[in-house]
Design goal:
Length: 249
Amino acid sequence: MILVSNDDGIHSEGLRALRDAMASLDEVVVVAPDRERSAVSHSLTLHRPLRAEEIRPGWYAVDGTPTDCVLLAVHRVLGERPRLVVSGINRGANLGDDVHYSGTVSAAKEGTLLDIPSIAVSLVGRRTFRFDAAARFAERLAAFTLDAGLPPNTLLNVNVPQTEDGAVPRRFQITRLGRRRYGDVIVEKTDPRGRAYYWLGGAESELRGEPGTDLAAVAGGSISVTPIHLDLTNYECWERLSSMELPWP
Ligand code: MN
């Protein structure tokens, strides 16, 4: 069984495209937020009850975050451990620093924390989105992952550039995370009562990065696949600090 989730919500077109692509590999169950929850990162709903409503066979809408969805799916809804968790296809990039804010990536993170191989898939576009090419690549990568597995604590973060005609980009690259440069991120305006208000994420970011990064790959028209490790320990620093004599108490 394959679990499919996302952060754009259960009615998003990218979710359906991903579900249909996975259906050629195994039985698929969709457990996704009942509305858009983009950029909620890895948050959990702890202070109110959650409901999972089966809106049609194999499709469950949850009034929570992507992380809630994966947790509920694995521990309650599915009735068995999925062989794979796939999240997406997100409407928009999850490149470089985006992975820290992304609900799409966090659904895959939750799968990884539950020791299930997990993949996050995003389509890099701005206004028009055609998901078929990204869905086809996701299917190929999912088949490979089911076969080869993934190292512990590791997920794959995939970004597919939107081509003009919706064709599959011919190249893909295994990449490392870049640093995303945003322009003026905060838009400031004045409300009808004369008070300032702010809107995050106003400006478009430029797709440029050092060679070998996810940003550079996508800017060059290639699909990017970044293996992401969830152990955030800095081992070099750990070693250095461990050998230091800290004066305490
Ligand atoms: Mn999203």
